[in-house]
Amino acid sequence: MKTTLIALFLSIASVVSAQIKFENGYIINNENQRIECLIKNMDWKFNPVHLEYKKTANGIAEKGTLSSIKEFGITGFSRYVRADVKIDISPADLINLSHERDPVWSQERMFLKVLVEGKAKLYYYEKEKLIRFFYSVSDTSINQLIYKQYYVGNDQIAENFKFREQLWNNVRCSNAGLNSVENLRYTRSELERYVKKYNEGSESRPIVNSDKKKREYFHIRLTPGLNYSGVEVLYLML
């Protein structure tokens, strides 16, 4: 029985290994040279910190790192760009949520996955239990879209929806109403759809809110302990 399980494991490992192959792509190095090459497609669940590539099919595999590669992409599959960004490292699991509303910032260098191209770009980062989205407009600096859950009191969970204000101020078509962001969720599908829609109407420049009043979005979920059946109330502060 043990021998059978070992054989099965080795067979599965062999199949998985065979599926990982070098595919057409490119890298951009620190000298801004674009090099067409073959990249080992690991189908990364978490954002990579390095990659393997070959300059020719029979060439020697080389290692690219955050210090040597500015950008890389696998044709028809994915594209990553190196960025020096501030990222909120607040814990996201309910057991370890903090009582602080504001993000806990850390300055990091990372490869961000490009989800949406265009005048506005959307980027993705995932590491273990941490998922964060970033954006830029017209090649401005890359900034995180802010969303955070935190405790208020002993049994209430609040949500900081700052990303809605960021999008309303910086990624908004001229004919958009407040309802375009007020129910927007911090998910890949909804953020991709929002940014793509903005890019489709990108003839109109993004509107920066000139009103000195600050819009802040947050959500209070009343929960007895960690029970999610409590009453939900959405607050919009102007």
How would you portray this structure in words?
The protein is α+β, with helices and mostly antiparallel strands. 18% of the residues lie in helices and 40% in strands. The chain has four helices and 14 strands. Strands 4-3-2-1-5-6-7-8-9-10 form a ten-stranded antiparallel β-sheet. β8 and β9 (130-137) form a beta hairpin. The longest helix has 18 residues, at 2-19. The relative contact order is 0.11.
- Work out the radius of gyration: 22 Å
Order of H and E elements: HEEEEEEEEEEEEHHHEE
Broad shape: globular
Q: Provide the β-strand percentage band.
A: 35-45%
- Indicate the percent of residues in helices: 10-25%
- List unreliable stretches of 5+ residues: 4-18, 204-218, 222-238
Separation, N- and C-terminal Cα atoms = 67 Å
> Which structural class do you get from the secondary structure elements?
alpha+beta
Biggest beta sheet summary? 10 strands, antiparallel
Quickly describe the structure:
By secondary structure, the chain is an alpha+beta fold. It is built from four helices and 14 strands.
Relevant terms:
single chain; 238 residues; alpha+beta; ten-stranded antiparallel β-sheet; four-stranded antiparallel β-sheet; 4 helices; 18% helix; disordered C terminus
Question: Layout of helices and strands, plus pairs?
Answer:
Elements: H1 2-19, E1 22-29, E2 34-40, E3 50-54, E4 62-65, E5 69-74, E6 78-88, E7 105-116, E8 120-127, E9 130-137, E10 143-145, E11 148-152, E12 156-160, H2 162-170, H3 179-182, H4 188-200, E13 216-222, E14 232-237
Antiparallel strand pairs: 1-2, 1-5, 2-3, 3-4, 5-6, 6-7, 7-8, 8-9, 9-10, 11-12, 12-13, 13-14
